[in-house]
Write a structure and sequence with these properties.
- The protein is of the alpha+beta class.
- It folds into 2 domains: 187 residues, 2-Layer Sandwich (Cytochrome Bc1 Complex, Chain A, domain 1); 183 residues, Cytochrome Bc1 Complex, Chain A, domain 1.
- It contains 15 helices and 10 strands.
- The strands form 2 sheets. The chain has a 5-stranded mixed β-sheet with strand order 1-5-2-4-3, sandwiched between helices. A 5-stranded mixed β-sheet has the order 6-10-7-9-8, sandwiched between helices.
- Strand 3 and strand 4 form a beta hairpin.
- The longest helix is centred in the first third of the chain and has 20 residues.
- The chain is globular.
Length: 396
């Protein structure tokens, strides 16, 4: 519970510790499918749930990641208990109607096609799938067309019963709330203990350096480099975030200055961490004309190698820390962001108190100096990356 007395709204998120990395291979995509079914026909709700929330001035949303599922809303305080009641019914009493299951398969197949048409998403999926081949993190959140079509009501109900259990569910609330919240939750979230222990333990992560090229119809070629990096639990994670700010975040970054401003090889280039409890990748993402692809790859590698020589100034370090501090504090001023961050940190077993007030933000960033930044650079940027390319070809 995150009480903010100055607000008139409440942000509520129901988090479930289940995602694509916990799925059996033959059921890949079932968590995302389950999330969709929560918004379908319900044994305890007779009306259209979206209309019910809109009548209270709110919306209901959901999403699935590799590590957890979430349904959430932002509601006026006067409707707080009604919203929690509806959220409990959505999560605990889906009908899993046969006709609705078949209908939703068609919806998700279209979502998979749409994802494949987004070349950034497609290349990112390729990078994860090949770099962590054989590990659950390589599994697609959406699944494949084949795995989705093979899902049955029996599969879905069994999966629901295994994972929708008290130990896997977390309720994150931020905004105008009080101690009565616990009574309201106890009133509506009555969940049976599963007879079967859910298998949601993390497995050791091994990185495989690869180069993968896939041809696509496009006016440009899409390039991604993936460098194995820290997990979210690593003690040097914050200095790593600062290092990435200097390296590839924004128009003052090393990558942007060298690739766009000096060489003119791309319109946009950036790097970002794609991280999980076991580890992850620092991703460099850029697109260019096919004729410049080889030159662009070599330039990205050169910029990375130069960064391992600590070629940043004290001013660049302070600017990066200021930008990261701004992001953290702006998030603290937003109840919905606070709710999401608290829920994610708690469901994944991270340190929920790291960035939940300005004093903690200052404490962590003040501890980021050239020593800890250089350590992060040595640990991450010296490693050889995987390379994934979507090679663009134009139709005749």
């Amino acid at each position: 519970m995150d009480r903010l007395s100055h607000t008139e709204s409440v942000s509520i998120g129901i988090f479930v510790k289940v995602g694509s990395k916990y799925e059996p291979i033959h059921l890949n995509g079932i968590t995302h499918f389950l999330e969709h079914m929560l918004f379908r026909k319900n044994d305890s709700i007779q009306e259209d749930v979206s209309i019910l929330f809109e009548s209270m001035g709110a919306e209901i949303r959901g999403f699935t990641t590799k590590e957890y599922l979430c349904i959430y809303t932002k509601i006026l305080y006067e409707y707080f208990e009604k919203a929690l009641e509806l959220l409990s019914k959505l999560l605990l009493h889906p009908s899993f109607d046969d006709a609705e299951i078949e209908s939703e398969k068609s919806v998700i197949l279209n979502e998979i096609r749409q994802s494949q048409d987004n070349l950034h998403e497609r290349n990112q999926s390729n990078l994860m799938r090949h770099s962590f081949k054989g590990h659950p993190l390589s599994m697609e959140v959406l699944g494949s067309a084949e795995s989705v079509l093979s899902l049955t009501k029996k599969n879905i109900v069994a999966y629901f019963n295994e994972f929708i259990t008290p130990e896997n569910i977390l309720i994150s609330v931020s905004g105008r709330v009080d101690v009565s919240l616990l009574d309201v939750i106890s009133k509506y979230f009555i969940i049976k203990q599963s007879e079967k222990k859910s298998s949601n333990d993390e497995k050791n992560l091994n990185f495989t350096q690869i180069k993968n090229v896939e041809r696509v119809t496009s006016n440009q070629s899409y390039l991604m480099l993936g460098i194995p990096c820290y997990s979210m639990t690593h003690p040097n994670f914050v200095p790593f975030l600062v290092a990435n700010r200097i390296f590839g975040h924004g128009s003052n970054s090393k990558l942007f200055k060298e690739v766009r401003q000096k060489s003119g090889l791309a319109y946009s280039i950036f790097s970002y961490p794609m991280v999980y409890k076991e580890g992850g990748l620092l991703v460099i993402a850029v697109s260019t004309s096919h004729m410049y692809l080889d030159k662009l790859i070599e330039l990205c590698l050169d910029v990375t190698r130069s960064f391992t020589k600590y070629n940043y100034s004290e001013q660049e370090l302070e600017v990066a820390k200021a930008k990261l501090k701004g992001d953290f504090i702006f998030g603290l001023e937003n109840p919905a962001t606070r709710m999401m961050n608290n829920g994610k940190n708690e469901i994944l077993g991270l340190d929920i108190h790291k960035f939940n007030n300005i004093e903690k933000v200052n404490e962590f960033l003040d501890g980021c100096n050239s020593g800890s930044i250089n350590e992060a650079i040595d640990d991450v940027f010296l490693k050889e990356p995987s390379i994934c390319i979507l090679e663009g070809t134009t139709p005749n």
